[in-house]
Amino acid sequence: MPPIQIALVGVGKIVRDQHLPAIAKNGDYRLIAAASRHGTVDGIDNFKSIEAMLEAVPAIDAVSLCMPPQYRYEAARTALEAGKHVFLEKPPGATLSEVADLEALAASKGLSLFASWHSRYAPAVEAARSFLAATTIRDVKIVWKEDVRQWHPNQEWIWAAGGLGIFDPGINALSIVTHILPRPVFITAATLEFPENRDAPIAATIAFTDADKLAVSAEFDWRQTGKQSWDIIAQTSAGEMVLSEGGAKLSIDGKIVHEEPEQEYPMLYKRFAEIIRAKTSDVDLAPLRHVADAFMLGRRKFVEAFHD
Amino acid sequence: MPPIQIALVGVGKIVRDQHLPAIAKNGDYRLIAAASRHGTVDGIDNFKSIEAMLEAVPAIDAVSLCMPPQYRYEAARTALEAGKHVFLEKPPGATLSEVADLEALAASKGLSLFASWHSRYAPAVEAARSFLAATTIRDVKIVWKEDVRQWHPNQEWIWAAGGLGIFDPGINALSIVTHILPRPVFITAATLEFPENRDAPIAATIAFTDADKLAVSAEFDWRQTGKQSWDIIAQTSAGEMVLSEGGAKLSIDGKIVHEEPEQEYPMLYKRFAEIIRAKTSDVDLAPLRHVADAFMLGRRKFVEAFHD
Q1: What pLDDT, in 10s, does the model give residues A199-219?
Q2: ipTM value
Q3: Closest partner residue to A186 among B95, B188, B189, by Cβ?
Q4: Which domains are present in chain A?
Q5: Contact criterion met (CB < 8 Å) for B296 and A300
Q6: What is the Cα–Cα distance from A44 to A56, expressed in whole angstroms?
Q7: pLDDT tens digits, residue range B232-245?
Q8: Is residue B82 a contact partner of residue B59, using CB atoms and an 8 Å limit?
Q9: Is B13 labeled as catalytic in the residue annotation?
Q10: Out of B25, B84, B90, B141, which one is annotated catalytic?
Q11: Which of A203, A299, B68, B281 lies 20 to 30 Å from A161, alpha-carbon distance?
Protein backbone atom coordinates (compact mmCIF):
# COMPACT_ATOMS: atom_id res chain seq x y z
CA MET A 1 0.00 0.00 0.00
CA PRO A 2 1.47 3.44 -0.84
CA PRO A 3 2.23 5.64 2.17
CA ILE A 4 -0.23 8.35 3.22
CA GLN A 5 1.28 11.67 2.15
CA ILE A 6 0.76 13.86 5.19
CA ALA A 7 1.24 17.54 6.04
CA LEU A 8 1.37 19.37 9.39
CA VAL A 9 -0.38 22.66 10.12
CA GLY A 10 0.62 24.77 13.14
CA VAL A 11 4.24 23.97 13.93
CA GLY A 12 4.78 24.50 17.65
CA LYS A 13 6.00 22.64 20.73
CA ILE A 14 3.57 19.70 20.49
CA VAL A 15 4.52 19.11 16.84
CA ARG A 16 8.27 19.02 17.61
CA ASP A 17 7.86 16.95 20.78
CA GLN A 18 5.28 14.45 19.56
CA HIS A 19 3.95 14.61 15.99
CA LEU A 20 7.28 14.70 14.11
CA PRO A 21 8.85 11.71 15.94
CA ALA A 22 5.61 9.70 15.72
CA ILE A 23 5.25 10.28 11.96
CA ALA A 24 8.99 9.67 11.32
CA LYS A 25 8.90 6.15 12.72
CA ASN A 26 5.61 5.08 11.12
CA GLY A 27 6.00 3.54 7.64
CA ASP A 28 2.36 4.28 6.83
CA TYR A 29 3.21 7.97 6.32
CA ARG A 30 5.44 10.21 4.31
CA LEU A 31 5.63 13.79 5.63
CA ILE A 32 5.74 16.08 2.61
CA ALA A 33 4.83 19.61 3.73
CA ALA A 34 4.10 21.92 6.65
CA ALA A 35 2.23 25.22 7.07
CA SER A 36 2.69 27.58 9.98
CA ARG A 37 2.79 31.31 10.57
CA HIS A 38 6.01 31.05 12.59
CA GLY A 39 7.45 27.52 12.69
CA THR A 40 9.09 25.41 9.94
CA VAL A 41 10.08 21.75 9.61
CA ASP A 42 13.51 20.93 8.15
CA GLY A 43 13.79 18.91 4.94
CA ILE A 44 10.29 19.49 3.54
CA ASP A 45 8.40 22.29 1.82
CA ASN A 46 7.12 24.94 4.25
CA PHE A 47 4.28 27.41 3.71
CA LYS A 48 2.77 30.32 5.62
CA SER A 49 -0.83 29.13 5.29
CA ILE A 50 -2.77 25.93 4.72
CA GLU A 51 -4.34 27.48 1.60
CA ALA A 52 -0.92 28.15 0.03
CA MET A 53 0.24 24.66 0.97
CA LEU A 54 -2.78 22.84 -0.48
CA GLU A 55 -2.50 24.88 -3.66
CA ALA A 56 1.22 24.15 -4.12
CA VAL A 57 1.26 20.46 -3.05
CA PRO A 58 -1.72 18.61 -4.53
CA ALA A 59 -0.19 15.23 -3.57
CA ILE A 60 -1.15 15.74 0.10
CA ASP A 61 -3.60 13.01 1.25
CA ALA A 62 -4.05 14.07 4.88
CA VAL A 63 -3.32 16.94 7.27
CA SER A 64 -2.72 17.11 11.03
CA LEU A 65 -4.06 20.30 12.56
CA CYS A 66 -2.11 21.40 15.64
CA MET A 67 -2.86 25.11 16.02
CA PRO A 68 -4.88 26.40 19.05
CA PRO A 69 -8.52 25.20 18.97
CA GLN A 70 -9.90 28.66 18.24
CA TYR A 71 -8.39 28.45 14.69
CA ARG A 72 -9.00 24.80 13.92
CA TYR A 73 -12.42 24.90 12.25
CA GLU A 74 -11.39 27.10 9.32
CA ALA A 75 -8.35 24.99 8.55
CA ALA A 76 -10.27 21.72 8.90
CA ARG A 77 -12.99 22.91 6.59
CA THR A 78 -10.45 24.11 4.02
CA ALA A 79 -8.71 20.72 4.12
CA LEU A 80 -11.92 18.68 3.86
CA GLU A 81 -13.20 20.86 1.00
CA ALA A 82 -9.90 20.11 -0.76
CA GLY A 83 -10.48 16.36 -0.30
CA LYS A 84 -7.95 15.71 2.49
CA HIS A 85 -8.33 13.48 5.55
CA VAL A 86 -8.02 15.45 8.80
CA PHE A 87 -6.37 14.70 12.17
CA LEU A 88 -7.47 17.16 14.89
CA GLU A 89 -5.27 17.70 17.96
CA LYS A 90 -7.23 17.85 21.22
CA PRO A 91 -9.59 19.56 21.93
CA PRO A 92 -11.07 19.09 18.43
CA GLY A 93 -12.53 22.60 18.33
CA ALA A 94 -13.65 25.67 20.22
CA THR A 95 -17.31 24.54 20.19
CA LEU A 96 -19.22 21.29 19.92
CA SER A 97 -21.29 22.67 17.07
CA GLU A 98 -18.36 23.41 14.78
CA VAL A 99 -17.00 19.86 15.20
CA ALA A 100 -20.46 18.43 14.46
CA ASP A 101 -20.39 20.49 11.26
CA LEU A 102 -16.97 19.10 10.28
CA GLU A 103 -18.14 15.55 11.02
CA ALA A 104 -21.08 15.98 8.64
CA LEU A 105 -18.81 17.47 5.96
CA ALA A 106 -16.28 14.61 6.24
CA ALA A 107 -19.09 12.04 5.98
CA SER A 108 -20.59 13.77 2.93
CA LYS A 109 -17.18 13.74 1.19
CA GLY A 110 -16.21 10.19 2.16
CA LEU A 111 -13.15 11.48 4.06
CA SER A 112 -11.77 10.45 7.45
CA LEU A 113 -11.95 12.87 10.38
CA PHE A 114 -10.07 11.96 13.57
CA ALA A 115 -10.80 13.81 16.82
CA SER A 116 -7.72 12.61 18.66
CA TRP A 117 -7.55 12.14 22.45
CA HIS A 118 -3.92 11.24 23.15
CA SER A 119 -4.48 10.26 26.80
CA ARG A 120 -6.80 7.46 25.72
CA TYR A 121 -3.71 5.79 24.27
CA ALA A 122 -1.69 6.01 27.50
CA PRO A 123 -0.13 2.56 28.20
CA ALA A 124 -2.31 1.37 31.11
CA VAL A 125 -5.68 2.71 29.93
CA GLU A 126 -6.83 -0.49 28.21
CA ALA A 127 -5.76 -2.57 31.21
CA ALA A 128 -7.78 -0.27 33.51
CA ARG A 129 -10.79 -0.60 31.23
CA SER A 130 -10.59 -4.41 31.30
CA PHE A 131 -10.14 -4.43 35.07
CA LEU A 132 -13.19 -2.22 35.65
CA ALA A 133 -15.35 -4.21 33.22
CA ALA A 134 -14.94 -7.28 35.44
CA THR A 135 -15.71 -5.60 38.81
CA THR A 136 -18.44 -3.74 40.61
CA ILE A 137 -17.35 -0.13 41.00
CA ARG A 138 -18.24 1.66 44.28
CA ASP A 139 -16.90 5.11 43.50
CA VAL A 140 -14.40 6.93 41.34
CA LYS A 141 -12.20 9.94 42.12
CA ILE A 142 -10.32 11.87 39.48
CA VAL A 143 -7.44 14.03 40.78
CA TRP A 144 -5.75 16.13 38.11
CA LYS A 145 -3.53 18.71 39.82
CA GLU A 146 -0.57 20.34 38.14
CA ASP A 147 1.42 23.56 38.15
CA VAL A 148 0.30 25.74 35.26
CA ARG A 149 3.51 27.81 35.54
CA GLN A 150 5.54 24.68 34.80
CA TRP A 151 3.39 23.21 32.00
CA HIS A 152 1.92 26.26 30.28
CA PRO A 153 4.28 29.17 30.99
CA ASN A 154 3.01 32.43 29.48
CA GLN A 155 0.52 30.68 27.16
CA GLU A 156 -1.97 33.54 26.93
CA TRP A 157 -4.44 31.71 24.64
CA ILE A 158 -5.14 29.11 27.28
CA TRP A 159 -6.48 31.83 29.63
CA ALA A 160 -8.63 33.53 26.99
CA ALA A 161 -12.34 32.80 26.67
CA GLY A 162 -12.49 29.54 24.69
CA GLY A 163 -9.01 28.49 25.84
CA LEU A 164 -10.65 26.24 28.47
CA GLY A 165 -8.17 26.99 31.31
CA ILE A 166 -7.81 24.02 33.69
CA PHE A 167 -10.02 21.98 31.36
CA ASP A 168 -7.18 21.90 28.83
CA PRO A 169 -5.42 19.25 30.96
CA GLY A 170 -8.69 18.18 32.60
CA ILE A 171 -10.12 17.06 29.25
CA ASN A 172 -7.34 14.45 29.13
CA ALA A 173 -8.74 12.94 32.35
CA LEU A 174 -12.25 13.08 30.88
CA SER A 175 -11.07 11.36 27.70
CA ILE A 176 -9.75 8.46 29.83
CA VAL A 177 -12.73 8.25 32.19
CA THR A 178 -15.29 8.24 29.37
CA HIS A 179 -13.34 5.35 27.82
CA ILE A 180 -12.75 3.12 30.88
CA LEU A 181 -16.07 3.36 32.73
CA PRO A 182 -18.73 0.79 31.84
CA ARG A 183 -21.58 3.27 31.33
CA PRO A 184 -21.81 6.88 30.12
CA VAL A 185 -21.59 9.45 32.92
CA PHE A 186 -23.09 12.92 33.16
CA ILE A 187 -22.46 15.93 35.37
CA THR A 188 -24.86 16.73 38.22
CA ALA A 189 -22.96 19.65 39.81
CA ALA A 190 -19.79 21.64 39.27
CA THR A 191 -17.91 24.63 40.65
CA LEU A 192 -15.49 26.53 38.42
CA GLU A 193 -12.91 28.85 40.01
CA PHE A 194 -11.95 31.84 37.88
CA PRO A 195 -8.98 34.06 38.80
CA GLU A 196 -10.44 37.56 38.99
CA ASN A 197 -8.16 38.74 36.16
CA ARG A 198 -8.74 35.80 33.77
CA ASP A 199 -11.48 34.54 31.42
CA ALA A 200 -10.83 30.82 31.97
CA PRO A 201 -10.97 28.75 35.18
CA ILE A 202 -7.87 27.79 37.18
CA ALA A 203 -9.65 25.01 39.11
CA ALA A 204 -12.86 22.99 39.08
CA THR A 205 -14.67 20.41 41.18
CA ILE A 206 -17.20 18.24 39.39
CA ALA A 207 -19.70 15.58 40.45
CA PHE A 208 -20.85 13.03 37.87
CA THR A 209 -23.18 10.10 38.01
CA ASP A 210 -24.47 7.44 35.61
CA ALA A 211 -27.61 5.39 35.00
CA ASP A 212 -26.72 3.16 37.99
CA LYS A 213 -26.07 6.16 40.29
CA LEU A 214 -22.29 5.61 40.41
CA ALA A 215 -20.56 8.49 42.25
CA VAL A 216 -17.70 9.98 40.22
CA SER A 217 -15.92 13.12 41.42
CA ALA A 218 -13.22 15.21 39.80
CA GLU A 219 -10.82 17.75 41.24
CA PHE A 220 -8.92 19.76 38.67
CA ASP A 221 -6.39 22.33 39.90
CA TRP A 222 -3.65 24.30 38.19
CA ARG A 223 -2.18 25.72 41.41
CA GLN A 224 -0.40 22.52 42.48
CA THR A 225 3.25 23.02 43.35
CA GLY A 226 5.44 20.09 44.42
CA LYS A 227 4.05 16.65 43.59
CA GLN A 228 1.88 16.64 40.44
CA SER A 229 -1.18 14.35 40.27
CA TRP A 230 -2.85 12.82 37.22
CA ASP A 231 -4.71 10.00 38.92
CA ILE A 232 -7.98 8.11 38.59
CA ILE A 233 -8.83 6.07 41.68
CA ALA A 234 -11.68 3.56 41.78
CA GLN A 235 -12.92 1.61 44.79
CA THR A 236 -14.17 -1.69 43.45
CA SER A 237 -15.25 -5.17 44.51
CA ALA A 238 -11.82 -6.37 43.36
CA GLY A 239 -9.87 -3.78 45.36
CA GLU A 240 -8.61 -0.24 44.92
CA MET A 241 -7.57 0.60 41.39
CA VAL A 242 -5.16 3.50 40.88
CA LEU A 243 -4.52 4.60 37.31
CA SER A 244 -1.75 7.15 37.78
CA GLU A 245 0.71 9.34 35.86
CA GLY A 246 -1.94 10.28 33.31
CA GLY A 247 -2.76 6.69 32.42
CA ALA A 248 0.81 5.35 32.31
CA LYS A 249 0.69 3.17 35.44
CA LEU A 250 -1.94 0.85 36.92
CA SER A 251 -1.93 -0.45 40.50
CA ILE A 252 -4.42 -2.71 42.26
CA ASP A 253 -4.37 -2.52 46.06
CA GLY A 254 -0.95 -0.88 45.93
CA LYS A 255 0.64 -3.46 43.63
CA ILE A 256 1.80 -2.27 40.20
CA VAL A 257 0.21 -4.45 37.53
CA HIS A 258 0.97 -2.42 34.40
CA GLU A 259 3.76 0.04 33.65
CA GLU A 260 5.20 0.63 30.21
CA PRO A 261 6.87 3.51 28.38
CA GLU A 262 4.26 5.80 26.86
CA GLN A 263 3.51 5.58 23.12
CA GLU A 264 0.54 7.94 22.90
CA TYR A 265 1.31 9.76 19.65
CA PRO A 266 2.62 6.68 17.79
CA MET A 267 -0.69 5.00 18.73
CA LEU A 268 -2.67 8.03 17.53
CA TYR A 269 -0.96 7.92 14.13
CA LYS A 270 -1.52 4.16 13.93
CA ARG A 271 -5.22 4.77 14.57
CA PHE A 272 -5.41 7.59 12.00
CA ALA A 273 -3.91 5.32 9.31
CA GLU A 274 -6.41 2.59 10.25
CA ILE A 275 -9.45 4.83 9.83
CA ILE A 276 -8.13 6.23 6.53
CA ARG A 277 -7.64 2.67 5.17
CA ALA A 278 -11.09 1.66 6.51
CA LYS A 279 -12.73 4.82 5.09
CA THR A 280 -14.33 5.73 8.44
CA SER A 281 -14.09 8.58 10.95
CA ASP A 282 -13.40 8.52 14.70
CA VAL A 283 -15.07 11.49 16.39
CA ASP A 284 -16.12 10.96 20.00
CA LEU A 285 -17.21 14.32 21.40
CA ALA A 286 -18.00 13.03 24.91
CA PRO A 287 -14.93 14.62 26.60
CA LEU A 288 -15.63 18.06 25.08
CA ARG A 289 -19.36 17.67 25.78
CA HIS A 290 -18.61 17.18 29.47
CA VAL A 291 -16.51 20.34 29.48
CA ALA A 292 -19.36 22.29 27.86
CA ASP A 293 -21.81 20.77 30.34
CA ALA A 294 -19.55 21.82 33.24
CA PHE A 295 -19.46 25.40 31.98
CA MET A 296 -23.25 25.41 31.43
CA LEU A 297 -24.25 23.77 34.71
CA GLY A 298 -21.39 24.91 36.93
CA ARG A 299 -21.38 27.61 39.56
CA ARG A 300 -18.74 30.29 39.05
CA LYS A 301 -16.54 31.32 41.95
CA PHE A 302 -13.95 34.07 41.88
CA VAL A 303 -10.50 33.59 43.32
CA GLU A 304 -7.21 35.45 43.59
CA ALA A 305 -5.76 36.94 40.41
CA PHE A 306 -3.24 34.78 38.57
CA HIS A 307 0.02 36.18 37.19
CA ASP A 308 2.54 34.06 35.31
CA MET B 1 -56.42 3.29 16.68
CA PRO B 2 -56.81 3.34 20.47
CA PRO B 3 -55.86 6.64 22.12
CA ILE B 4 -52.43 7.05 23.73
CA GLN B 5 -52.97 6.90 27.49
CA ILE B 6 -50.90 9.78 28.77
CA ALA B 7 -49.82 11.11 32.17
CA LEU B 8 -48.36 14.44 33.23
CA VAL B 9 -45.46 14.87 35.65
CA GLY B 10 -44.78 18.23 37.31
CA VAL B 11 -48.06 20.14 37.42
CA GLY B 12 -47.26 23.86 37.32
CA LYS B 13 -48.11 26.95 35.31
CA ILE B 14 -47.02 25.61 31.90
CA VAL B 15 -49.12 22.47 32.37
CA ARG B 16 -52.26 24.45 33.21
CA ASP B 17 -51.68 27.07 30.51
CA GLN B 18 -50.58 24.80 27.68
CA HIS B 19 -50.37 21.03 28.17
CA LEU B 20 -53.85 20.43 29.60
CA PRO B 21 -55.75 22.36 26.89
CA ALA B 22 -53.59 20.84 24.11
CA ILE B 23 -54.16 17.27 25.32
CA ALA B 24 -57.88 17.88 25.96
CA LYS B 25 -58.62 18.82 22.36
CA ASN B 26 -56.49 16.09 20.75
CA GLY B 27 -58.37 12.82 20.12
CA ASP B 28 -55.07 10.90 19.93
CA TYR B 29 -54.75 11.10 23.72
CA ARG B 30 -56.57 10.19 26.88
CA LEU B 31 -55.14 11.84 30.00
CA ILE B 32 -55.34 9.29 32.81
CA ALA B 33 -53.01 10.38 35.63
CA ALA B 34 -50.73 13.09 36.96
CA ALA B 35 -47.83 13.17 39.42
CA SER B 36 -46.59 16.29 41.17
CA ARG B 37 -45.24 17.26 44.58
CA HIS B 38 -47.63 20.20 44.85
CA GLY B 39 -50.10 20.43 41.95
CA THR B 40 -53.05 18.23 40.99
CA VAL B 41 -55.28 17.88 37.91
CA ASP B 42 -59.04 17.60 38.45
CA GLY B 43 -60.92 14.50 37.31
CA ILE B 44 -57.99 12.05 37.11
CA ASP B 45 -55.83 10.08 39.54
CA ASN B 46 -53.11 12.18 41.14
CA PHE B 47 -49.89 10.95 42.75
CA LYS B 48 -47.00 12.52 44.66
CA SER B 49 -44.27 10.86 42.57
CA ILE B 50 -43.78 9.34 39.13
CA GLU B 51 -42.75 6.04 40.78
CA ALA B 52 -46.05 5.81 42.71
CA MET B 53 -48.00 6.73 39.59
CA LEU B 54 -46.33 4.16 37.30
CA GLU B 55 -46.81 1.49 39.96
CA ALA B 56 -50.52 2.27 40.43
CA VAL B 57 -51.49 2.92 36.79
CA PRO B 58 -49.87 0.32 34.48
CA ALA B 59 -52.10 1.40 31.57
CA ILE B 60 -50.01 4.55 31.02
CA ASP B 61 -48.41 4.52 27.53
CA ALA B 62 -46.60 7.87 27.63
CA VAL B 63 -45.59 10.64 30.04
CA SER B 64 -44.99 14.37 29.60
CA LEU B 65 -42.25 15.67 31.89
CA CYS B 66 -42.75 19.31 32.85
CA MET B 67 -40.68 19.77 36.03
CA PRO B 68 -37.59 22.06 36.04
CA PRO B 69 -34.75 20.62 33.88
CA GLN B 70 -32.56 19.78 36.89
CA TYR B 71 -35.00 16.98 37.85
CA ARG B 72 -35.92 15.69 34.42
CA TYR B 73 -33.30 12.98 33.85
CA GLU B 74 -34.32 10.80 36.81
CA ALA B 75 -37.99 10.91 35.88
CA ALA B 76 -37.28 10.26 32.20
CA ARG B 77 -35.08 7.29 33.00
CA THR B 78 -37.72 5.88 35.36
CA ALA B 79 -40.40 6.22 32.68
CA LEU B 80 -38.29 4.68 29.90
CA GLU B 81 -37.24 1.78 32.14
CA ALA B 82 -40.96 1.21 32.76
CA GLY B 83 -41.58 1.05 29.00
CA LYS B 84 -43.25 4.46 28.54
CA HIS B 85 -42.77 6.97 25.72
CA VAL B 86 -41.43 10.31 26.97
CA PHE B 87 -42.19 13.95 26.06
CA LEU B 88 -39.59 16.36 27.49
CA GLU B 89 -40.49 20.03 28.00
CA LYS B 90 -37.72 22.43 26.92
CA PRO B 91 -34.86 22.44 27.70
CA PRO B 92 -34.69 18.64 27.54
CA GLY B 93 -32.23 18.38 30.44
CA ALA B 94 -29.63 20.08 32.57
CA THR B 95 -26.74 18.70 30.48
CA LEU B 96 -26.23 17.47 26.94
CA SER B 97 -24.72 14.23 28.21
CA GLU B 98 -27.76 13.16 30.22
CA VAL B 99 -30.04 13.67 27.21
CA ALA B 100 -27.65 11.65 25.03
CA ASP B 101 -27.94 8.89 27.63
CA LEU B 102 -31.76 9.01 27.51
CA GLU B 103 -31.69 8.94 23.71
CA ALA B 104 -29.61 5.75 23.76
CA LEU B 105 -31.93 4.18 26.35
CA ALA B 106 -35.07 5.01 24.36
CA ALA B 107 -33.51 3.55 21.20
CA SER B 108 -32.47 0.36 23.01
CA LYS B 109 -36.02 -0.10 24.32
CA GLY B 110 -37.83 0.77 21.08
CA LEU B 111 -39.57 3.73 22.75
CA SER B 112 -40.17 7.28 21.50
CA LEU B 113 -38.34 10.19 23.11
CA PHE B 114 -39.41 13.72 22.15
CA ALA B 115 -37.19 16.68 23.00
CA SER B 116 -39.82 19.36 22.40
CA TRP B 117 -39.04 22.91 21.23
CA HIS B 118 -42.38 24.71 21.29
CA SER B 119 -41.16 27.83 19.48
CA ARG B 120 -40.33 25.75 16.40
CA TYR B 121 -44.09 25.30 16.03
CA ALA B 122 -44.90 29.01 16.15
CA PRO B 123 -47.25 29.87 13.23
CA ALA B 124 -44.87 31.73 10.90
CA VAL B 125 -41.74 29.61 11.42
CA GLU B 126 -42.27 27.29 8.44
CA ALA B 127 -43.07 30.26 6.20
CA ALA B 128 -39.83 31.94 7.32
CA ARG B 129 -37.90 28.77 6.59
CA SER B 130 -39.34 28.51 3.08
CA PHE B 131 -38.68 32.19 2.41
CA LEU B 132 -35.02 31.91 3.49
CA ALA B 133 -34.47 28.71 1.48
CA ALA B 134 -35.23 30.63 -1.71
CA THR B 135 -33.00 33.67 -1.06
CA THR B 136 -29.40 34.61 -0.47
CA ILE B 137 -29.04 35.72 3.15
CA ARG B 138 -26.72 38.66 3.88
CA ASP B 139 -26.94 38.72 7.67
CA VAL B 140 -29.21 37.73 10.53
CA LYS B 141 -29.93 39.52 13.82
CA ILE B 142 -31.72 37.87 16.71
CA VAL B 143 -33.17 40.28 19.28
CA TRP B 144 -34.75 38.56 22.29
CA LYS B 145 -35.37 41.17 25.00
CA GLU B 146 -37.96 40.75 27.73
CA ASP B 147 -38.67 41.77 31.31
CA VAL B 148 -37.76 38.90 33.62
CA ARG B 149 -39.84 40.45 36.43
CA GLN B 150 -42.93 40.14 34.22
CA TRP B 151 -42.32 36.65 32.79
CA HIS B 152 -40.46 34.84 35.58
CA PRO B 153 -41.39 36.60 38.84
CA ASN B 154 -39.60 35.07 41.84
CA GLN B 155 -38.60 31.91 39.95
CA GLU B 156 -35.48 31.13 41.95
CA TRP B 157 -34.57 27.95 40.01
CA ILE B 158 -34.06 29.92 36.83
CA TRP B 159 -31.25 31.92 38.49
CA ALA B 160 -29.52 28.91 40.02
CA ALA B 161 -26.52 27.26 38.32
CA GLY B 162 -28.05 25.03 35.64
CA GLY B 163 -31.19 27.21 35.43
CA LEU B 164 -29.73 28.89 32.31
CA GLY B 165 -30.87 32.45 33.14
CA ILE B 166 -31.53 34.50 29.99
CA PHE B 167 -30.91 31.36 27.92
CA ASP B 168 -34.22 29.95 29.17
CA PRO B 169 -36.06 32.28 26.76
CA GLY B 170 -33.02 32.60 24.49
CA ILE B 171 -33.09 28.88 23.70
CA ASN B 172 -36.51 29.46 22.09
CA ALA B 173 -34.83 31.83 19.62
CA LEU B 174 -32.06 29.29 19.04
CA SER B 175 -34.63 26.55 18.41
CA ILE B 176 -36.17 28.69 15.65
CA VAL B 177 -32.90 29.87 14.11
CA THR B 178 -31.44 26.36 13.94
CA HIS B 179 -34.60 25.30 12.11
CA ILE B 180 -35.00 28.13 9.58
CA LEU B 181 -31.41 28.75 8.46
CA PRO B 182 -30.17 26.77 5.46
CA ARG B 183 -26.92 25.55 7.07
CA PRO B 184 -25.83 24.71 10.64
CA VAL B 185 -24.35 27.66 12.54
CA PHE B 186 -21.76 27.70 15.30
CA ILE B 187 -20.66 30.29 17.83
CA THR B 188 -17.43 32.22 17.31
CA ALA B 189 -17.67 34.64 20.27
CA ALA B 190 -20.00 35.42 23.16
CA THR B 191 -20.25 37.64 26.21
CA LEU B 192 -22.44 36.58 29.13
CA GLU B 193 -23.50 39.16 31.73
CA PHE B 194 -23.96 37.80 35.25
CA PRO B 195 -25.60 39.89 37.98
CA GLU B 196 -23.03 39.91 40.81
CA ASN B 197 -25.51 38.15 43.14
CA ARG B 198 -26.67 35.42 40.71
CA ASP B 199 -25.33 32.17 39.23
CA ALA B 200 -27.01 32.54 35.83
CA PRO B 201 -26.65 35.28 33.20
CA ILE B 202 -29.18 38.12 32.78
CA ALA B 203 -27.98 39.05 29.27
CA ALA B 204 -25.79 37.73 26.47
CA THR B 205 -24.44 38.81 23.10
CA ILE B 206 -23.42 36.08 20.70
CA ALA B 207 -21.78 35.95 17.27
CA PHE B 208 -22.36 32.90 15.09
CA THR B 209 -21.24 31.94 11.65
CA ASP B 210 -21.68 29.00 9.28
CA ALA B 211 -19.74 27.16 6.57
CA ASP B 212 -20.44 30.02 4.14
CA LYS B 213 -19.33 32.70 6.66
CA LEU B 214 -22.86 34.06 7.20
CA ALA B 215 -22.89 36.65 10.02
CA VAL B 216 -25.54 35.87 12.64
CA SER B 217 -25.72 37.90 15.86
CA ALA B 218 -27.90 37.52 18.93
CA GLU B 219 -28.78 39.93 21.71
CA PHE B 220 -30.53 38.37 24.66
CA ASP B 221 -31.57 40.62 27.54
CA TRP B 222 -33.85 40.14 30.54
CA ARG B 223 -33.76 43.80 31.62
CA GLN B 224 -36.12 45.08 28.92
CA THR B 225 -38.97 47.19 30.27
CA GLY B 226 -41.64 48.64 27.95
CA LYS B 227 -41.78 47.06 24.49
CA GLN B 228 -40.74 43.38 24.51
CA SER B 229 -38.83 41.96 21.50
CA TRP B 230 -38.72 38.39 20.22
CA ASP B 231 -37.52 39.08 16.69
CA ILE B 232 -35.33 37.45 14.04
CA ILE B 233 -34.38 39.86 11.27
CA ALA B 234 -32.66 38.73 8.08
CA GLN B 235 -31.33 40.94 5.28
CA THR B 236 -31.72 38.94 2.10
CA SER B 237 -31.60 39.21 -1.69
CA ALA B 238 -35.45 39.19 -1.58
CA GLY B 239 -35.73 41.97 1.00
CA GLU B 240 -35.77 42.35 4.76
CA MET B 241 -37.45 39.47 6.56
CA VAL B 242 -38.77 40.10 10.08
CA LEU B 243 -39.99 37.09 12.02
CA SER B 244 -41.48 38.72 15.10
CA GLU B 245 -43.50 37.98 18.25
CA GLY B 246 -41.54 34.78 18.89
CA GLY B 247 -42.29 33.31 15.48
CA ALA B 248 -45.97 34.30 15.26
CA LYS B 249 -45.68 36.97 12.57
CA LEU B 250 -43.70 37.24 9.34
CA SER B 251 -43.10 40.45 7.40
CA ILE B 252 -41.14 41.02 4.21
CA ASP B 253 -40.03 44.61 3.61
CA GLY B 254 -42.56 45.81 6.18
CA LYS B 255 -45.53 43.96 4.67
CA ILE B 256 -47.14 41.26 6.83
CA VAL B 257 -47.24 37.99 4.87
CA HIS B 258 -48.13 35.55 7.62
CA GLU B 259 -50.00 36.03 10.89
CA GLU B 260 -52.09 33.35 12.55
CA PRO B 261 -53.14 32.50 16.11
CA GLU B 262 -50.49 30.42 17.81
CA GLN B 263 -50.97 26.64 18.13
CA GLU B 264 -47.58 25.66 19.53
CA TYR B 265 -48.58 23.06 22.12
CA PRO B 266 -51.33 21.46 20.02
CA MET B 267 -48.67 21.04 17.30
CA LEU B 268 -46.21 19.54 19.80
CA TYR B 269 -48.77 16.94 20.88
CA LYS B 270 -49.59 16.20 17.25
CA ARG B 271 -45.89 15.59 16.62
CA PHE B 272 -45.51 13.41 19.72
CA ALA B 273 -48.40 11.16 18.59
CA GLU B 274 -46.81 10.93 15.12
CA ILE B 275 -43.45 9.72 16.43
CA ILE B 276 -45.13 7.22 18.79
CA ARG B 277 -47.15 5.77 15.88
CA ALA B 278 -44.03 5.73 13.67
CA LYS B 279 -41.90 4.19 16.46
CA THR B 280 -39.19 6.86 16.15
CA SER B 281 -37.72 9.56 18.36
CA ASP B 282 -37.27 13.30 17.76
CA VAL B 283 -34.28 14.61 19.68
CA ASP B 284 -32.47 17.57 18.17
CA LEU B 285 -29.96 18.85 20.70
CA ALA B 286 -28.68 21.74 18.55
CA PRO B 287 -30.39 24.51 20.58
CA LEU B 288 -29.03 23.21 23.92
CA ARG B 289 -25.64 22.54 22.32
CA HIS B 290 -25.40 26.21 21.32
CA VAL B 291 -26.20 27.25 24.89
CA ALA B 292 -23.46 24.95 26.23
CA ASP B 293 -21.07 26.29 23.58
CA ALA B 294 -21.90 29.88 24.62
CA PHE B 295 -21.12 29.08 28.25
CA MET B 296 -17.89 27.28 27.29
CA LEU B 297 -16.61 29.83 24.79
CA GLY B 298 -18.14 33.01 26.24
CA ARG B 299 -16.46 35.74 28.22
CA ARG B 300 -18.06 36.43 31.62
CA LYS B 301 -18.85 39.99 32.61
CA PHE B 302 -20.26 41.08 35.95
CA VAL B 303 -23.09 43.56 36.19
CA GLU B 304 -25.32 45.11 38.82
CA ALA B 305 -27.03 42.77 41.30
CA PHE B 306 -30.55 41.69 40.37
CA HIS B 307 -33.40 41.64 42.90
CA ASP B 308 -36.93 40.52 42.05
Answers
A1: 999 999 999 999 999 999 999
A2: 0.94
A3: B95
A4: 4-115 (3.40.50.720), 119-263+292-303 (3.30.360.10)
A5: no
A6: 13
A7: 999 999 999 999 99
A8: no
A9: no
A10: B90
A11: B68
